[in-house]
Amino acid sequence: VAAADGGISVMENKVSYSFAQQMTFTLKAVSDIEISKAYLFFSVAGSNQTESATVEVKPPAREVNVNHVHDLRNSRLQPFATVTFWWQLESPSNDIQLVEPQQFQYTDNRFNWKELSANGVTVHWIEGQGDPIFGQVALDVAQASLKEINAELRVPTTPAINIYIYDAQHNLEQAMRLTGRSWVVGQAHPELGNILVAIPFGEGYMSQMRRYIPHEITHLLVYRHVTPDGYRYVPEWLDEGLATANEQLPTPEQALVLEEARTQGRLLSLEDLCAPFPPKAETTFLAYAQSGSLVRFIREQYGAGKIRDLLAAYADGASCAGGVQEALNTSLSDLEATWRASLEPRPPWYLLVERIGTWVGLWMLSVLLAVPMIGGLRRR
């Protein structure tokens, strides 16, 4: 029995649900005054909206036994979000009593989940999917990725991360569709610290982990680096480009698509990549490939510190072009032009000179230093 405000004893205060179908809130309590109405409130982490419902108590009584069924088919919740709910009881004379808020996690309870945690990272995977080795590999990849990515971004406090691994793409796709969201290979919900990916247990699952997990962790760290208010200003090419460039095992098809688009003159403009990527699958894949290539180019030409400068500029509300100008001291069009030029194939002699250039330079320097010494010896 939990005591609540204003002379009320709570016997039962719970919620049960069927994922993406309905959610039932139940309250059983005894009050020292008669209750005529019960108001239910609940809110989802990451949302500014509070849902509410009114339940009549007829006739008014001191013993309250009420419930409310919420239809999740019409009012959908984000999967694995934390939900806070509370009750407010009211007497016929408008006296109010509040029941202490409770929390629960809206887990996809169509499946039984296993979990493994270490250092603020928790991996959840569907029971029977190669456990416990499967979970340990995912946790190792996540922790190594978190350390490596944060070496560049330098987030002061890394968020707690929950990674949910579905056993098949169609199960993740169905979860997204049932909750009213679009689906790709994986999704990050930075405001919740959650990552959802589909990685079947089978041959090659480690390779998929090394691609998808670092990619989604990058989104969480970028969100934390620029703060929630600044995250909306980060252009798509930088957010997705960083995530793509941070994959431990690059997708080989991206290099092929990028080269094909270059030779055919179909590269997307950088200005177009400032906005969310186009929905067409082929164009979206090219957008990811270009963005990853551009971020790698910026790292090589300007240094990793400029990545942080870019994020800082966007966190302050800079436009897509303004952030590039402020952080890199170049225009968006000039950045695109130099990046495109870097994609052009180089002749064999150029590559040879590039490889031996350092040694030739050192040899020339030694010759220049030796000439005065030889001249001095001749004079002597």
Approximate shape: elongated
Number of helices: 10
How far is it from the N-terminal to the C-terminal residue, by CA? 105 Å
Mean of pLDDT = 88
Poorly predicted regions: 1-5, 349-354
Query: How many strands, which pairing sense, and closed or not: the largest β-sheet?
Result: 7 strands, antiparallel
Q: Roughly what fraction of the amino acids lie in strands?
A: 25-35%
* Pattern of helices and strands: EEEEEEEEEHEHEEHHHHHHHH
C-alpha Rg, in Å?
29 Å
Structural class determined from secondary elements: alpha+beta
SS elements, strand count: 12
How helical, in percent, are the residues?
A: 40-55%
How would you explain this protein's 3D organization?
This protein is 44% helix and 27% strand. The chain has 380 residues and is an alpha+beta fold. Strands 1, 2, 3, 4, 5, 6 and 7 form a 7-stranded antiparallel sheet that branches. A 5-stranded mixed sheet has the order 8-9-10-12-11, with helices on both faces. Helix 4 crosses helix 6 (281-302) and helix 5 (252-263) packs across helix 6. The longest helix has 32 residues, at 348-379. The chain is elongated.
